[in-house]
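Quick check before the chapter quiz. The format below is the same one you will see on the exam, so make sure you can read both the input and the output lines.
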Amino acid sequence: MKKNIGIWIDTRQAIVIRLSKNGEHFIKKIESEIETRVRVPGESKKFGRFGGQYITYEKNRLNKKNEQVNHFIKELFKEIENCDALVLFGPAKMKKILEKEIRNNMQFSGKLLGVHNSDLLTENQIVAWVKDYFNN
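Here is the expected output.
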């Protein structure tokens, strides 16, 4: 049986739509847990010991965000392991990040059919979009 999957992805969550051959669909929501705007209480610029050098926490924040994105992508890879065809769509740049990871993975690179822009959609609109994509 052919397994087609459509993923609507945003920074906050991904909605995975699995289509079966007889027209049924299965929906799974995956929360990303990516923190976009974090303020640590008490955080401020600090002077270094040698002159007027500033120590910032940008590198730590960036590393933490990259770690959260990698964890989110690993969760999505678990969902698309057994698919035959895959399409990505959504409003954010997260779809481009996932596309890059899929293209770098030999197991999934041939299964990706396309990456498309879309607005914020309801769950029913997402299902209809995926069904229309695979029926055409």
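If your answer matched, good. Helices lie at 58-79, 94-104, 123-135.
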